[in-house]
Amino acid sequence: MDQSLNRRDFIKKSGAAALGFAILPSFISRHAPSDRLRIAHIGLGGMGNQHMQWFAALPDVEIVALCDVDELHLNGTLESLKKLHPDTQAKTYGDFRQVLDRKDIDAVTIATPDHWHAQIASLAFQAGKDVYGEKPLSYDVKEAGVMLKNLTKHNRIFQLGTQIHATDNYHRVVEIIQSGAIGKVHTVRLWKNGFSPGMGHPKPQTPPKTLNWDMWLGPAPLVDYYPERVHLNYRYFLDYSGGVFADFWCHIADVAWWAVQPRGLKSVTARGEKTDGVADAPKWLDADFEFENLKLYWTTLPPNVPGAAERGIGAYFEGDKGTLICDYETRSITINGETVSDLPEVAQKLPRSPGHQQNFVDAVKARTSPESNLAYVKDMTMPMHLAVISWRLGRKLNWNVEKEKFVDDKEADALLSRKYRKAWDLL
């Protein structure tokens, strides 16, 4: 599978869908400058440009700053912004700390590699900024806790970039499951087709002058540069991310956490395969999770259940009265042998989203909690981190929910966090 094409297709598809939700009708007049949210975008690769385009389409937002450690990304995004808003006065920066120092910026979006998410967000909270951050939430478990602590202390707003959360389909799936139509859900199966590439065996090179390689690495270990390691490919290296599994977990796990709210994680058992190249994130990873009164499974290939084979990503809920299968845009409910796409008798109770980005803007202005708030996504993201640890150690791990530690397992506990490079430990 050409994973880069697969991801580009995903970004294009989900980006278009989310943008459709984000753009308001053309007859709405532009807000007065004093009413507009002043936003800076930090990290300007593929998703960073999506962020810029999404927020640039909102009439109550003004983009005032762009930031990236790669001058090519920075200049390219500025040109794109100028095409959308020829009168833009946005300033450009190579160091996000200069952005956070600006008192006139209300909020930032973060689309850096995963290993920078938590520090930048926490520093933004400390600087009085609200944050729209890309997924996954953090590089490790400890970072997520630090983020929540800083958000709470500084009374900030955070929205995770789970754009699919805003769709009507996910809202409807949650309504149907929480109505009890398929009974008590005892098993959930999640999957995502796709294998992490090995990236070959490249030789070290001198970083291009347009890239601040030391700052790109930031808190991660100091290593030699080669192009196969940076930008989109970073997700295939454990120093920065966790492969296709970590990349897509939250997009489909989101609907499961929202619908059935798994509680009391007891254990995780992961298995998978290494790549045949320098990339050390799992080529593929499957995981079994045991919660109180719920079993949850993640697989790389679709499970052997009706309707899964034709869905490259999906969730399958098994209740004692029926089943429901869904992906981002579709759903099927089977009860007593009859399969339908909806249950009209189930009332619509959940307020629909104005768009994921607009929901964030509205929450910032009203000082209310957005849909993909930090406390919720922290709970939803943690099992993903634990599964990667189980895969790295090659064994089942038991979890203590109250202590947020493994049960009598210091080796596993050591992987819940890592020590930052001294120069880039900024908190």
Automatic annotation (TrEMBL):
Pfam families recorded: GFO_IDH_MocA, GFO_IDH_MocA_C2
Domain annotation Gfo/Idh/MocA-like oxidoreductase N-terminal: ranges: 37-161
Domain of life: Bacteria
Coiled coil ranges: none
UniProt-recorded Gene Ontology molecular function terms: nucleotide binding
Gene3D superfamilies in the cross-refs: Dihydrodipicolinate Reductase, domain 2, NAD(P)-binding Rossmann-like Domain
Span of domain Gfo/Idh/MocA-like oxidoreductase bacterial type C-terminal: 190-425
Name of this chain's protein: Gfo/Idh/MocA family oxidoreductase
Organism: Chryseolinea soli
